[in-house]
Fold this sequence. Notes:
Helix content: 40-55%
CATH class: Alpha Beta
Bound molecules: flavin-adenine dinucleotide
CATH architecture: Alpha-Beta Barrel
Oligomer: single chain
Structural class: alpha/beta
Low-confidence stretches: none
Shape: globular
CATH topology: TIM Barrel
Amino acid sequence: MKMREILERDQTVFSFEFFPPKTEAGWVGLTDRLHKFEALEPSFVSVTYGAGGSTRFKTHELVCHIASKTSLDPIPHLTCVGHSKQEVSTILQSYIDTGIDNILALRGDRLLDGDSKSDFRQASDLITCIHECTGNSFGVGVAGFPEGHPETPNRLVQMDHLKLKVDRGIDWICSQLFFDNAAFFDWVERCELAGITSPIFAGIMPIQSIAGMRRMAELAGGANFPAKLQKRLYKFQDDEDAVRKIGTSWAAEQCAELLDHNVRGIHFFTMNQSFATEEIYRSLGATSSVQLRNPQ
Ligand SMILES: Cc1cc2nc3c(=O)[nH]c(=O)nc-3n(C[C@H](O)[C@H](O)[C@H](O)COP(=O)(O)OP(=O)(O)OC[C@H]3O[C@@H](n4cnc5c(N)ncnc54)[C@H](O)[C@@H]3O)c2cc1C
């Protein structure tokens, strides 16, 4: 279903992000677990793409599996670093053939070889290419960074870059993960000041371990880990179960406040595990997205 229709149907959009597992055991684990995510009836799910094409075929395989074997509506991520227009066009055609309606258009982190083979400089170029190559067949989403993107310290200029992506024709913005709602609310206001009216989904990542948090800090450069959260986590750092519960309840508190502020969507970075998302739904008084999507 095109994002425009999803947005018409759902007052609040709920989505889950998966990554294509590298191992056979990971694949079996995730595909077995998909029914748990189905039971939560999200608006859509998304599948990450390895920058430079490292997961090109695995992303495609997982998207096709989800589309053909489950009731979930998959949206592939596509990064453009290291790709030629011809490669991107072939990937897009394969998704048209599979009946995919939307793409999350990203640049990806720069490659070590300096992206010498790339026909694209930024995600904005990919957006143009998606529209031109497919005659506007896809709903297009992009990434946004409430706490800044490491490559562009000037926040005003960074907002100009986001506005450029919006002006190239997009349907939604999905935020980078954040743990401090105040930063997200402030960014949404700054987007409004810049004339950005696209729906913005909040990226939520329930911390499940201290090691996972440290990995995430590396990947999601810019995201702040509030002292209050760190104090709670480090107090129980030797108790894995307690850390998982603290991380999940922090994310649940974030979600409750976001919903109070009528956020347009919540995107869960699930790390392919269903436990935290299920737990958060329960804490919000729901067993499925449908109960949360259109509150009376
Ligand atoms: C929700 C979400 C999902 C993600 N999924 C993936 C994934 O599946 N695979 C993956 O590899 N990565 C993923 N990422 C990470 C993302 O690819 C990286 O953070 C990347 O560095 C930035 O991508 P972008 O699409 O925002 O790029 P861009 O919009 O191109 O921005 C990248 C940087 O360039 C700057 N910039 C933009 N336009 C210009 C210009 N005209 N001139 C100069 N500078 C400019 C921006 O300010 C920013 O600092 C995801 C991020 C988010 C938030």
